[in-house]
Amino acid sequence: MKRIFRSVFLQIRCAHEGAGARKTPFPGEEIHIPDQPYNSKIDDSLLAKIPQFDAKLIAHLERLSLVRFDSEQAVANLRNSVRIAQRLELVDVEVS
User: Fold this and answer.
1) Other C-beta atoms lying within 10 Å of the C-beta of residue 69
2) pLDDT tens sequence across 25-42
3) Are 67 and 81 contained in the same domain?
4) N or C: which end of the chain has fewer CB within 10 A?
5) Domain identity same for 1 and 43
6) Which residues constitute the domain of residue 10?
7) What is the DSSP letter of 3?
């Protein structure tokens, strides 16, 4: 097992040598990551309204996630997480 891991590690390390050069771990592998970051403009008006979290829903989420939402800051963080997840739904990930 160690021999296989070492072999794969050396192949990957050798493929990444060279400063600033764009390399792939395996020769001939197609790269799907753009060279420059793409700034996706997301229209916030397309987002659904963030739901209100009542005590019953928060208790249910606490049981499922094993996370305590016992403070207003914790609930605000939950709302922010929902907002970010809604924005991620609008991101276009299709390969053009």
Assistant:
1) 19
2) 677 777 777 777 777 777
3) yes
4) C
5) no
6) 1-31
7) H
